[in-house]
Structure formats: C-alpha cells, structure tokens
From TrEMBL:
This is NAD(P)-dependent oxidoreductase. One of its GO terms (molecular function) is oxidoreductase activity. PANTHER family: GLUTAMATE SYNTHASE [NADPH] SMALL CHAIN (PTHR42783), GLUTAMATE SYNTHASE [NADPH] SMALL CHAIN-RELATED (PTHR42783:SF3). The lineage of its organism: Bacteria, Pseudomonadati, Pseudomonadota, Alphaproteobacteria, Rhodobacterales. Keywords: 4Fe-4S, Iron, Iron-sulfur, Metal-binding, Oxidoreductase. SUPFAM superfamilies: alpha-helical ferredoxin, Nucleotide-binding domain. Residues 25-136 form the Dihydroprymidine dehydrogenase domain. It comes from Gymnodinialimonas phycosphaerae.
Length: 478
C-alpha cells in the first residue's frame, strides 16, 4: 500500500518559505518571503495531522477548509486546492500574506500545541492562489443572469470588496464609493508593500472592474454625494467605511511639529511607492530619512510604522509599548521581523508628554511602567513606577494607538443611523442596521480589527442581501 502523503510532522520539520536577509530587505519595500517550490509546498502541507476536529479551521474567522486544501496540496492537486480555498475566502492570496496566522489558524494548530511546530498554513494558502493566478485558474466575474437589484457600497476596503465580489457574481448591479483615488482601502494605503505588494490588490480591483463593478473614487459621502442620495439610487446599501479617526495623545508638547499620525505616515509612504506626488513626504515632514524615530503603540500598525522607518533610512527606530512583549497585541512574527531589521523595543514604557525645541519635537517624556492586576479583559494593567521618568530623544514621533470611528450620523446627516457608545454602527446578526436595507460590515461595526474579519462580514452581508433580493423577487412574481 502506498504511503499516505499526510502526517509527516513527526519526520518533517516546520519550514517557512525562504526569507530575505534583513540587511537586504531593508533596502526596498518588496515582500520579504519567497515562494514555495511545488515540492516544498507539498512537503509542508503533508505535515498536517488531518485532525478530526480541526482547531485551525474553527479559529479561522472564515472557517476555511484548511485540512482539506492542505491534503489536496500534498497530493499535487493544486487546482482543486484553489477551488476549495476560494469557496470560503474571497481574497485568499491576501489573507495568506497579511493574516496574523500565529494568533489564528497556525497558533491553534494541534501539532504546534504538541511541540512539533505548526503547519505553515498561511504560506501554503498564498502559494495555492498565486499558482492559480499564474495558471489562469482564477475565473473572471461573469454572472449567469443579470438581476435588476442595485447595491451601493460605501468603502472599497476588504469588507466592501468582498461584498461587491459576491453580489456581482450573483448578477446584482454594484457600485462602490470610496474617498480615495484607488480602490483597496487600508490594503492599498495602510499596509506596506513588504507585507502586501500592491499589484496583488490591483489585480483583484481589475477583476472586479472587468466583471462589471462600478467604482466612484475620490468621493466623500456627505460632501460629494449625500447618504440619502445613495439610498435613493440603490435598493440596498452596505456601509464598509472602516475606522480612520486616529486616537490622540495629550500631554505637554503634544502639538509640536514632528508628532504625526500613523495613517498619514503609512499613506504617504505607500503613495510614494506608487510614484505619486507627495509634497509632505518630499519636504521631510512624513519621511523618516536621517531621523531618530519613536513609534508609540504595540499593534500591527506600529509594526508597519517601525519597519517602514527602517526602510526610509532612519538613524534609529524605537518602539514604545506600555506592556511587555508577551502582552503585545500585534503579531509576534512581525515583532521578530522588526527586531531582525534593527528596531529597538522599549517595553513597559508610556508617553507622558513631549519635549518641544522651538516648535519641533525633541523627545518623548517616558514613564516607566510595571504590570499590575488584570483588567476586565484578563490582561495585566500597566501601572506607573514613580520617579522613573526619562526622555527618549526623537526627531519624529509616530502615534500608532489605534483608530476610532468617525461620527457617521452627523457627517452624513442621518441621525437615525444608530451607533454604539463607542461610535461604531449598530448591526444585527445579518449585518443590517437600524435603517431598512442598509447593512454595515467590518471595522465600522467591530472597531479596528483584521482584514479577514472584514471579508467574513462582507460575505455574510452579501448573502443576506441576496436572500432578501430573491425573496422580494419571488413575491413580486407572484
């Protein structure tokens, strides 16, 4: 009997795709991981233990059929592996690149828990879909029947685009409105190229456009078009704006020049990579070149900022975080990449204020912290250590403290759009809001979260809209 291709984790160790050396990758914004060769992808996929209860799948927000497409990959049946992968995930090649697998599927892999090293799920997922694109297996959007229902989607990020893809494939007429000049949201302007090269996003945008999705770009809802007008134009509306309002830092000197928001910094860097004219970057205001940079925050956005600063030629890059490394909310894989690239992490440190040298920031006043009793979430709360303050010298300070929702009811003159006390839009389990036939997905409902959760929300909202459209059409026919 031929040997089964799976269960190789006992004899075959975990092996990620080859990663470029830190000194080399700091010179550009290209992705740092290479691609698996076919044999290596099959070998690593073959390490899967084919659990009866796959925790990798249950801890994936999309509940991807991970063990099944790993088995197909191990057997060399890549076309089938791709078909299975994309059945539950609109953008598997994007999730394979930017999902924090160490906190989701890979972090809950059974063989990881048993000490054998996780299956490299994300890298195999990326390999499957990149191979599918290379071989022409990714099918264009070609609805079998055109339907009359019209859907307006506000926001061209992952949630909005996932909904657009499903709805258009079902034949609905879809228009996406977005404030930026390119579709993709934070995938385009917030996430650096070394994690997600932009041609990967552009390729999906083109597929949607070629498939009949209409894009209205450089469009600020509430200014260029009212929310009421969008509702009048369309049978259904999906709010997928994301959260772009940066959390601020108070304290002495907080208004000094050189203290900037992470979203502004990352957007300028990504625009520059596109070849756009970015005066704030060219003037040095949003460039780290030759500067001592301090980034405040411990999430994935902070990691994007510190790693961007090293590539821009900062003389030093430090990351201040008020808890310790174990309690960081960001991906541990990204922290390791940042360390390799020369970033200095200053744990248990929080900003108290800023030293101001003739209007320009000269440093961060730092309070040293210790971890005390757990808070409501179970994490230990940071407490100030008295008389341990010091100043961390800096020419540029980047605030990466997370994002809050904009006040949509006021901006859109729609007070009947119900929001929570945090300002996020209220939506039920089908993602419908207090307004009939108006749905909301992604960060504007969840608060700042992951791309994969936005994709899940977008797909679920699309399913709810399709169900209602079909039911309405049936009633009308009768």
């Amino acid at each position: 009997m031929a040997k089964q291709p799976m269960l190789k984790f006992v004899t075959v160790g975990k092996e990620m795709p080859e990663k470029r050396e830190a000194d080399q990758r700091k010179e550009d914004f290209a992705e740092i991981y290479g691609e698996y060769a076919a044999e290596k992808a099959a070998e690593q996929a073959g390490r899967c233990s084919q659990c009866g209860v796959p925790y990798c799948q249950s801890h994936c927000p999309l509940h991807n059929n991970i063990p099944d497409w790993l088995k197909l990959t191990a057997e060399g049946r890549l076309r089938e592996a791709y078909d299975l992968s994309q059945a539950t995930n609109t953008f598997p090649e994007i999730c394979g690149r930017i999902c924090p697998q160490d906190r989701l599927c890979e972090g809950n892999c059974v063989i990881e828990q048993s000490g054998h090293g996780t299956v490299t799920i994300g890298s195999v997922e990326k390999y499957i879909t990149d191979t599918a694109w290379d071989n022409g297996w990714v099918m264009p959007i070609a609805p079998a029947v055109e339907r009359p229902e019209s859907v307006g989607i506000i926001g061209a990020g992952p949630g909005g685009l996932a909904a657009a893809d499903m709805l258009r494939r079902a034949g609905l007429q879809v228009t996406v409105y977005d404030r930026y000049d390119r579709s993709g949201g934070l995938m385009m302007y917030g996430i650096p190229g070394f994690k997600l090269e932009k041609d990967v996003v552009v390729r999906r945008n083109k597929q949607l456009e070629d498939g009949g999705v209409k894009f209205v770009l450089n469009c600020n809802v509430g200014e260029d078009i009212s929310f009421a007008e969008i509702r009048e134009k369309h049978d259904f509306v999906v709010i997928a704006t994301g959260v772009y309002k940066s959390r601020e830092l108070d304290g002495p000197g907080s208004g000094a020049n050189g203290i900037i928001r992470a979203i502004d910094y990352l957007t300028a860097s990504n625009r520059k990579s596109f070849g756009d004219d970015v005066p704030e970057f060219d003037s040095g205001e949003l460039s780290a070149e030759g500067k001592r940079v301090v980034v405040i925050g411990g999430g994935d956005t902070a990691m994007d900022c510190v790693r961007t600063a090293t590539r821009q030629g900062a003389t030093s890059v430090k990351c201040l975080y008020r808890r310790d490394e174990v309690n960081m909310p960001g991906s541990m894989r990204e922290v390791q990449n940042a360390k390799e690239e020369g970033v200095d992490f200053v744990w248990l440190s929080a900003p108290k204020g800023f030293s101001d040298h003739k209007g320009a920031v000269g440093g961060v006043m730092v309070q040293k912290m210790r971890l005390g009793a757990p808070d409501a979430t179970g994490r230990q709360s940071p407490e100030v250590i008295e008389n341990a303050d010091y100043v961390e010298d800096a020419d540029m300070v980047i605030k990466a403290l997370g994002f809050s929702p904009e006040d949509l009811p006021t901006l859109w003159d729609t007070p009947e759009l119900e929001v929570t006390r945090w300002g996020t839009v209220k939506a039920n389990r089908t993602h419908e809001t207090a307004l009939e036939n108006v749905f909301a997905v992604g960060d504007i409902v969840r608060g700042a979260s992951l791309v994969v959760w936005a994709i899940r929300d977008g797909r679920e909202a699309a399913e709810a809209i399709l169900e209602r459209a079909l039911a309405t059409n049936t009633v009308a026919a009768e």
